[in-house]
Amino acid sequence: MAKTKTGRPQGRPKGYSPGWMRTVTHRIGSWAWNTENLHKRIVKTDPESCWAWTGSSNEFGNIYGAYKNDHPQMTQSNRLIYMEIHGEPIDQLAVKMKCGNIHCSNPNHFYTDKNNRYVEL
Q: Taking the model in full, what pTM does it have?
């Protein structure tokens, strides 16, 4: 196997199982994740109410495991959902909730702050 400049073998990153890349179904910019697994953790009701996140969470909101630059990275699920909808990377963008419920996953409740101004999604 070929080696990188640092002496690590090229190929799949250290610590990954052999099939890790098969789980990736969506990739935008430096981010990659499994869309089906992400949406399995959301209980979707009507478009106006909050959609419950049933996956892991912390004090900052819904947490989902994704890959950034092909390395494991935990991020907020609403950031991944925003990227799916808009097709643009959000590395420097905060996605917030109009409803005030940090565990909501309804994209109709999302807003973001670009250049210190309110942007409706």
A: 0.73
